[in-house]
Automatic annotation (TrEMBL):
SUPFAM superfamilies cross-referenced by the UniProt entry: ATPase domain of HSP90 chaperone/DNA topoisomerase II/histidine kinase (SSF55874), PYP-like sensor domain (PAS domain) (SSF55785)
Main location: membrane
Transmembrane segment boundaries: 20-37, 261-280
Domain Histidine kinase stretches: 577-787
Domain PAC residues, every copy: 508-559
A Pfam cross-reference name: HATPase_c
Protein name per its UniProtKB record: histidine kinase
Matching InterPro entries: CHASE_dom, CHASE_sf, HATPase_C_sf, HATPase_dom, His_kinase_dom, PAC, PAS, PAS-assoc_C
Top enzyme category: transferase
Top-level division of the source organism's lineage: Bacteria
The UniProt record lists the keyword Cytoplasm: no
């Protein structure tokens, strides 16, 4: 009974001790949270270790591929060594290797440990002639490791004698089971790190380190600069036997539990349901975390798979061929894939069976020259046929493996697939041809010049020949061709504009004249742009438009405007003259009429009537001359035609024959019989007659009159000079009114002042010009410019 009575008390002990229960629950909750925290810590650590392993595997894959590629390169170099231990075509094979592997510092052949063959020589001169076994203890130990291992071994990282840091991979070569030397590759250290992905700048929370045990000191040396150390952080390592390297990858983030004490205390005071809910939330978060980690792992796997695929297909085809039979002796994987054959199938085929039938003849010709030692290598673009009869465009390089004085034996063929490039180039050529046709179809000259090459013309469209007569080659033949062909009156203006305004703004439009190839003057409107910007100019592009017709029309309009102004002035002057002359005649008539009405005798009336008749005759002459002037100034349909100048001069002289005889004058004519001018027939007769008659009329009384008539060319026109040795004209007083109406200068009774006025109007009505030079007492020269 006592026992049974105590059982309920024991069973309710927690209920009866709430503080202790609360304390125990708190302790339990803390233990649970501690357990969860520990689990979370392990998960984060495992996830980070998994990430580190994945990154190290990626580095391992890249580095293994680089080392294998280096071993293949070393094997390729070894193939150039014949049984006598002499390399064949080392420079040519090495050149192709270096072209395909830009990460290499150089390649070497090291007979008996002495670096004798080096490519490229430039930049690596210091390495040639070094004896690895005698250079120093460190190099000797590292070199002997390759011999001891009987496989490729990488020395370094080391300070290269030619400068910089790098690693040297050496493959021991044996001929007849006797050590010959090494086939070696030199890899720049920074390129090694880049290809392997050992670049700390690319990662936020991860740091790589690259180390190797120094065989002399036994100490581990590190080669990636690091500003911090991370003791206690998660890290993993990978070891590479090929160079006895060790790669460290460290997560710089400290692993710590993500919780706060206050939250945990509050969590302990919550009821069980709330605790369970929070626990469920925590588990859900863990599941999400695992899901994210799985997604990242899949992404890394996809990236890794793509990388392997790309790397496996990024290569160049290399084959060794029997030069006698033409059969493949060896073929690499890329070459097999290129032609669609397995290696066994390809080694049973002859290379000419893969060459397109249209390219066989030229290939046979080149190979015949190679076999005859006329050339030591040839490269050409060929078409090949794969297993499925598909055409493959490829760039083939063929190099012999025999010395020049030996019989042909074997040769190496390096084939690069350029099918896509050929198709692109064909499309590019077609596009370029279309663009050129489009540019050349434009009315203007499209041009381009290089600012950095002293404004040398880099392009000009074919329109330059149509407009200026120069070919495209002539235009681009020399720097400054454009400046040389500027019209001399515009050259200084254009050069000043270019010096002061060219780089002041991006777009320009300027007009100037150029001398065409046939000597004609062409007006150009040049619209140009500075490319790409005025801050960093590299090129000038523009279009030169021929605006000669526009300029000629503008000039014609200007001349017409000036002519209209001049005619307006003449008409105004003419109105004054008409008003004055007619008023003078009218006054005379009125005065004489008054005298007649007041005459007392018949004799006086008859005398006045005679005076009246004389005034009427003078009035009639004045009206006739004024009518001629009006006809000249208002005629719009004057016919201009080609006239033989000498013929009209002779006709005018014949008309003045009697005056020439009376004066005893001598007329000298020096005008070629093939000179033709565009003029009106009647006007030319009038002009010549007026000027020749004036030369005779105003001759000097003390000397024989001499009239010289001569002609000279002026561009596309002529200048006619009519020179006399007469009394001359004082031009200082009379130049402005020389060609005026009713202007006389010598007091001759028969002078009316109409001749020179009519002559000047007739000349200018034809669009030409007349001028005069004269000295009093010496003579006068009238000059007519026929355009």
């Amino acid at each position: 009974m006592p026992t049974s009575s105590k059982q309920p008390i024991k069973s309710n002990w927690f209920t009866l001790n709430p503080k202790l229960t609360t304390f125990l629950f708190f302790i339990s909750l803390v233990a649970i949270i501690a357990l969860i925290t520990q689990q979370r810590y392990q998960i984060i650590k495992e996830n980070r270790e998994r990430d580190i392993n994945a990154m190290l595997e990626s580095v391992e894959l890249r580095l293994d591929q680089l080392l294998k590629n280096s071993q293949n390169i070393a094997l390729t170099l070894a193939l150039t060594i014949d049984q006598n231990g002499k390399p064949r075509n080392f420079d040519k094979v090495a050149s192709e290797i270096m072209r395909s592997n830009p990460s290499l510092q150089g390649v070497q052949l090291v007979p008996n440990g002495v670096i004798k063959y080096m490519y490229p020589v430039k930049g690596n001169e210091a390495a040639i002639g070094l004896d690895l076994f005698k250079m120093n203890t460190f190099n000797a130990i590292e070199a002997k490791k390759a011999i001891k291992l009987h496989k490729m071994y990488f020395q370094g990282p080391i300070e290269l004698v030619q400068g910089g840091q790098g690693v040297v991979g050496r493959l021991p070569i044996y001929i007849d089971n006797k050590f010959w030397g090494f086939s070696a590759v030199v890899i720049k250290l920074d390129q090694l790190f880049k290809i392997a992905g050992l670049e700390n700048d690319n990662f936020l929370h991860y740091r790589f380190q690259f180390s190797k045990i120094n065989p002399l000191t036994g100490k581990e040396e590190f080669f990636i600069p690091s500003e911090h150390s991370y003791p206690g952080n998660t890290y993993k390592t990978k070891t590479f036997e090929e160079g006895e390297w060790k790669i460290y990858l460290t997560d710089t983030r400290l692993i710590y539990a993500d919780y706060q004490l206050g939250g945990l205390i509050g969590f302990g005071l919550l009821v069980t349901l709330l605790s369970s809910y929070l626990l469920l939330r925590l588990l859900n978060k863990h599941r999400q975390l695992f899901y994210m980690v799985d997604q990242q792992s899949n992404m890394l796997h996809d990236v890794d798979s793509k990388y392997k695929t790309i790397f496996a297909n990024a290569a160049i085809g290399i084959g060794r061929v029997n030069s006698i039979t033409g059969e493949f002796l060896e073929a690499n994987a890329f070459l097999c894939r290129l032609f669609g054959y397995t290696e066994d199938e390809l080694t049973k085929k002859k290379i000419k069976s893969l060459i397109h039938v249209d390219d066989l003849a030229i290939d046979a010709y080149d190979f015949k020259r190679l076999r005859n030692n006329e050339i030591r290598q040839f490269s050409s673009v060929r078409r090949y046929i794969d297993k499925n009869q598909k055409v493959i465009w490829a760039n083939a390089i063929v190099s012999p493996l025999w010395e020049k004085d030996e019989n042909p034996s074997q040769h190496i063929v390096i084939i690069e697939d350029i099918t896509a490039q050929v198709i692109y180039e064909e499309q590019l050529i077609a596009s370029k041809k279309y663009a050129e046709e489009l540019i050349n179809s434009m009315e203007g000259i499209v041009w381009e010049a290089s600012v950095k090459e002293n404004f040398a013309n880099t392009f000009v469209s074919s329109k330059v020949y149509d407009i200026l007569g120069y070919t495209q080659d002539e235009w681009s033949s020399e720097v400054g061709f454009f400046i040389e062909k500027l019209y001399h009156e515009d050259k200084e203006r254009v050069m000043t504009y270019l010096d002061n305004e060219l780089f002041a703004r991006k777009h320009h439009e300027y007009e100037y004249r150029m001398v065409a190839k046939d000597g004609s003057i062409i007006w150009i409107r040049d619209t140009l742009t500075v490319e790409p910007s005025i801050e960093a100019p590299e090129k000038l592009r523009g279009i030169m438009m021929d605006i000669t017709v526009i300029k000629e029309a503008e000039e014609t309009l200007r001349k017409s405007f000036e002519l209209v102004n001049e005619q307006n002035k003449r008409l105004l002057n003419f109105s004054y003259i008409v008003s004055h002359n007619l008023r003078s005649h009218a006054s005379n008539i009125d005065g004489i009429s008054s005298l007649i009405s007041n005459a007392e005798t018949h004799e006086e009336r008859d005398e006045m009537i005679k005076l009246l008749r004389k005034v009427v005759v003078n009035l009639n002459d004045t009206l006739y001359n004024l009518n001629n002037i009006v006809n000249i100034q208002t005629s719009m349909d004057l016919v201009k035609e080609p006239l033989n100048l000498l013929e009209y001069i002779n006709n005018a002289i014949q008309t003045q024959e009697s005056q020439i005889l009376n004066k005893g004058a001598r007329v000298i004519v020096n005008v070629a019989d093939d000179v033709f001018i565009y003029f009106n027939k009647a006007y030319l007769e009038s002009v010549l007659l007026n000027l020749i008659s004036n030369a005779l009329r105003y001759s000097h009384a003390l000397r024989q009159p001499v009239v010289e008539i001569y002609c000279e060319t002026l561009g596309a026109g002529y200048i006619l000079h009519i020179k006399d040795n007469g009394v001359g004209i004082d031009l200082s007083k009379n130049r402005e009114k020389l060609f005026g109406l009713n202007q006389t200068f010598h007091g001759n009774n028969d002078a009316r002042g109409f001749g020179l006025f009519i002559t000047k109007n007739q000349v200018e009505a034809m669009g030409d010009h007349i001028d005069v030079e004269s000295k009093v007492g010496e003579g006068t020269t009238f000059s007519i410019v026929f355009s």
